[in-house]
Design brief:
The complex is a heterodimer of chains A (110) and B (137). Chain A has 110 residues and is of the alpha/beta class. Chain A is built from four helices and five strands, in the order E-E-H-E-H-E-H-E-H. Chain A has one domain: STAS domain (Transcription Regulator spoIIAA), CATH 3.30.750.24. A five-stranded mixed beta sheet of chain A has the order 1-2-3-4-5, sandwiched between helices. The longest helix of chain A has 16 residues. Chain B has 137 residues and is of the alpha+beta class. Classes of the chains: A alpha/beta (110), B alpha+beta (137).
């Protein structure tokens, strides 16, 4: 996990599924100082609804605190499961980290 | 899609067994030459049904119950894939809560047909339209 003063990066890899629920929840944490969070999921090979629920809970929490969150999703399975769950509009997703950083930087500079 | 036999797995209904069951299903579908996208979708839907068993099926059971989950996958003539996920636990009908209940929504988005039999434990039966990699080329 990397962070700087304004944008924090949380990176999750591999299969995000029920067996890793606690690990996902632990990884999705805030220090309280960051104004934007990039969740890099580009190396996630599988995600289930348990992972989506944890991501949604974290994003809602951040939104309430005025912290912007962007997700980088590259794998087709993950992108489709977000659609299937009806959560496309619940997350700000990008297929590359450059786009996500640009979006978050804009939020930080406001 | 090749005609093939059946995949039948029974494991303890614990979270650490779910990924290996999914991987076995993916390998079975690959052997059937099911194309990658459908393979991923079928294993995603099955993974949701399996996760539901782990999270909910035995929540009200006493310690003596056989807490297992079974997956049966088979292909039928006419290019249909059938996947059943069953348990011997209790089906709990819940009110939909905001921010929860995505598993069944995902299954419904992927499967052509889904039925849930709660007469003896719970059996989620999913039907998918098979597309083979060979038929695409």
């Amino acid at each position: 996990m990397n962070s700087n003063a304004s944008i924090k990066t949380i990176r999750l890899c591999g299969e995000l599924e029920i067996g890793r629920k606690s690990e996902i929840r632990d990884a999705l944490s805030r220090s309280g100082e960051e104004r934007a969070i990039l969740i890099d999921l580009s190396e996630v090979t599988y995600a289930d609804s348990v992972a989506l629920t944890e991501l949604l809970r974290f994003c809602v929490e951040c939104q309430r605190s005025g912290v912007a969150v962007a997700l980088v999703i590259k794998t087709p399975q993950f992108a489709r499961v977000v659609q299937y769950a009806g959560l496309a509009s619940a997350f700000k997703t990008f297929d590359n980290s450059e786009g996500a950083v640009a979006y978050l930087s804009e939020h930080v500079q406001r | 899609m090749k005609r093939a036999s059946e995949l039948r797995l029974r494991r303890p209904a614990q979270s650490q067994y779910i990924a290996p069951i999914r991987h076995a299903l993916a390998a079975f579908l690959e052997a059937l030459q099911v194309d990658r996208e459908l393979r991923d979708d079928v294993t995603t839907a099955a993974g949701e049904a399996l996760a539901n068993v782990v999270e909910h099926a035995y929540a009200r059971s006493s310690g003596r119950a056989a807490r297992s989950v079974q997956l049966i996958a088979r292909c039928k003539d006419g290019g249909k894939l059938l996947v059943d996920v069953s348990d011997q636990g209790s089906f709990i009908r819940r009110k939909p809560l905001p921010g929860r209940g995505f598993g069944l929504r995902i299954i419904r988005a992927i499967a052509r047909h889904i039925s849930i039999d709660t007469s003896r434990g719970t059996c989620v039966s999913m039907t998918f339209e098979a597309r083979s990699a060979a038929s695409k080329s």
